[in-house]
Design goal:
The chain is α+β, with helices and mostly antiparallel strands and about 375 residues long. Helix content is about 25%, strand content about 25%. It has two domains: about 150 residues, Beta Barrel (Ribosomal Protein L25, Chain P), CATH 2.40.240.50; about 170 residues, RlpA-like domain (Barwin-like endoglucanases, Beta Barrel), CATH 2.40.40. The longest helix has 18 residues.
Length: about 375
């Protein structure tokens, strides 16, 4: 679960409020570790997405390349994850029933099945999206952000250069009615030290802090092996973003993640002062091959979305459009077919967090994406 705020996604600690990790030098490491690359070309630039764009215009400009796919057929594995999630739901029960959107689990399942059946035809005839589905617009618009899967240098054992612990969930975490130890108590006072709770030892505490924000990621071990970790719990304290902390102290000009990381890199003596002002702390578990969403499945680049399940329920098909920051083009129109498969503490009502992947472009987009655009929930006609 993408818990953005205090915790990153199970797949997302959403607080993730978009935190990205790496500066320019880390981009290379991130891409190498993740083993995934964005397509060499995304095709010709598209007209910008308009906030009040019509369904007809949206569909006419919809193309799989903008989602890093060669064909709409590549949506099939993501659709299957949503269908598996819906197996335990009673078809007649409402998945969502609010002003502007009402849908049963059965209707949601029917839409997913219809979409999967249409996949072989959609590349040549994208108009089938409009002909086969009722497009329920999410009014007045969606606020978009992004999250990604960072890579952190770590060691299985504590040693010089690897001294910052990454903790597993303490067995007594659920026994505390109030809040658990604060970040400062855990990191500075060593409240959890020497209890066998260390999953690994990281080289950089700042990397771990931003890993918490994302909620999941991978550890690049000294021997070159890679281990994926996911969100396993949070200490119960309210999250306070590093950007807010640093702005309150007058330390930033722009306030974006890159500026934050650069400032912390240049002022190591003040890292604890900044990070410990946020009492929230996230625990991890070794798990799977990538970031796991609230459905219990690994989320997929540009297809899986974190939503507020009381506003857009898990399992929904969401057509979404937003002008995203792009490292090569500056800005790029993204019109896409996504799936609500994750949630996050900072994802409320008309906000959608897009899972961008784990390569350098994903890092860039997730770091800077903060824009508005249209979105529709698709229901089979």
């Amino acid at each position: 679960m993408h818990t953005p705020s205090p915790c990153p996604t199970g797949a997302h600690s959403l607080l993730r409020s978009l935190c990205c990790l790496l500066l320019a030098g880390s981009f290379v490491l991130l891409a190498a570790c993740a083993g995934k690359k964005s397509p060499e070309t995304l095709g010709p630039a598209q007209p910008p997405v308009e906030r009040n764009e019509s369904v007809e215009t949206f569909v006419s400009l919809l193309r799989p390349q903008d989602q890093a796919m060669r064909s709409f057929r590549e949506l099939a594995p993501t659709i299957d994850k949503s269908l598996s999630y819906l197996k335990s739901k009673k078809s007649a029960d409402y998945a969502i029933r609010r002003p502007g959107l009402a849908m049963t689990w059965g209707e949601m399942k029917r839409a997913l099945i219809r979409l999967k059946q249409l996949l072989p035809q959609l590349d040549k005839n994208p108009r089938l999206f409009a002909e086969n589905f009722e497009w329920v617009r999410i009014d007045p618009y969606i606020s978009y952000s992004g999250y990604y899967s960072p890579v952190v240098k770590a060691s299985k054992k504590r040693k010089p250069g690897y001294t910052h612990p990454i903790y597993r969930r303490p067995p007594d975490l659920g026994h505390h009615k109030g809040s658990y130890y604060t970040r400062k108590q855990i990191e500075e006072e060593g409240k959890l030290a020497n209890q066998g709770l260390e999953l690994a030892w990281a080289a950089d505490p700042v990397d771990v802090f931003f890993l918490e924000i994302q909620g999941s990621g991978c550890l690049l071990m000294e021997d070159g092996s890679q281990v994926c970790i996911n969100y396993a719990g949070q200490n119960g304290h309210k999250y306070k973003s590093s950007g807010r902390i640093m702005r309150e102290k007058g330390l930033l000009k722009r306030g974006d993640i890159f500026e934050q990381r650069q400032w912390l890199k240049e002022h190591p003596e003040r890292v604890n002062e900044i990070l410990h002002d946020n009492p929230s702390f996230v625990f991890f578990k070794l798990e799977g091959t990538g970031p796991t969403g609230a459905m219990g499945y690994v989320v997929d680049d540009w297809k899986s979305l974190a939503t507020d399940r009381s506003f857009i329920p898990l399992g929904s098909i969401v057509a979404y459009g937003v002008n995203i920051p792009d490292p090569k083009r500056g800005k790029m129109a993204l019109r896409a077919i996504g799936f609500a498969q994750d949630v996050g503490g900072a994802i409320k009502k008309n906000r959608i967090d897009i899972y961008c992947g784990s390569d350098e472009r994903a890092n860039y987009v997730a770091s800077f994406l903060d824009a508005r655009g249209p979105a529709w929930v698709l229901k089979a006609k």
